[in-house]
Amino acid sequence: MVPWPRNAKIAFIGSHGIRKTTAALAFASAIQRAGRSVEFAREVVRDNPLGINEGATSEAQLWVLTSQIRRELELSRKAECLVTDRGVMDNFAYYLRAGGGEDPFEVEPLVRKWSRTYDLVVRLTPDVEIRADGVRSTSDRFRDEIEAILDARLPRLVPRDRLVIQAASGITEDHDWWPLAEQLASRLGEPLLARGVSRPRPPRPSAARRRRPKPAPDDQLALDLGR
């Protein structure tokens, strides 16, 4: 196998409860099927010893932001592609919200520079309900506040040609990640497929998705299956 000439990095970002982890893991699997090596950087917020959700302080969110960078530094050279569950951009939004819109530790210059290290940034938009997991907040207001900050700040951090917008409701078991994988490889000027590897068949729609039953408004399961 001829490796890519440099390591690629892609971040899946957005507020909480919008299937970022599901999307990032599925994309990492697509890169592996192309014969490329992959590292996955899970979100660090669940390890935060200083508190999370609405009550998090600026210090707590600073811990998350710097821990995100540290983890990316540790993993970025271990594989051809690093897939991250969150990036500095959305962690910065939580940090700003915790500080009432202020930047008490003056981290924005670092965030601006680090945002340029991602080859692609996939922003998932929240068109699905938050599902309780016992850890993250289920407050729609809190999530809306984070999204508003991202709306205002993201254009200053990520060039338009590196930003991909994806509705969270489109993250299903049938989603085809191959076009995004090819887009990432094209940024490197390299083929996606490793030598000797054939393109896998596109995912076949599940029986539930082919039937596309019309769910009741509160039918979360049907929503997850593709609406």
Number of strands: 5
What CATH architecture label applies? Answer: 3-Layer(aba) Sandwich
Fourth-tier CATH superfamily name:
P-loop containing nucleotide triphosphate hydrolases
Strand line-up of the largest beta sheet: 2-3-1-4-5
What fraction of the residues are assigned to beta strands by DSSP?
A: 5-15%
What is the top-level CATH class? Alpha Beta
Q: Can you write the helix and strand succession as a string?
A: EHEHEHHEHEHHH
Q: Estimate the mean pLDDT confidence.
A: 90
Round the Cα radius of gyration to an integer and report it. Answer: 18 Å
Our count of helices gives 8
Distance between the termini: 39 Å
Give the domain tally: 1
Explain what you see.
- This protein has about 230 residues and is α/β, with parallel strands linked by helices.
- It has one domain (about 10-200): Rossmann fold (3-Layer(aba) Sandwich), CATH 3.40.50.300.
- Helix content is about 40%, strand content about 10%.
- The chain is built from eight helices and five strands, in the order βαβαβααβαβααα.
- It has helices at about 20-35, 60-75, 90-100, 110-115, 140-155, 180-190, 205-210, 220-225; strands at about 10-15, 40, 80-85, 120-125, 165.
- It has a five-stranded parallel beta sheet with strand order 2-3-1-4-5, sandwiched between helices.
- α2 (about 60-75) packs antiparallel against α3 (about 90-100).
- The longest helix has 18 residues, at about 60-75.
- The termini are far apart.
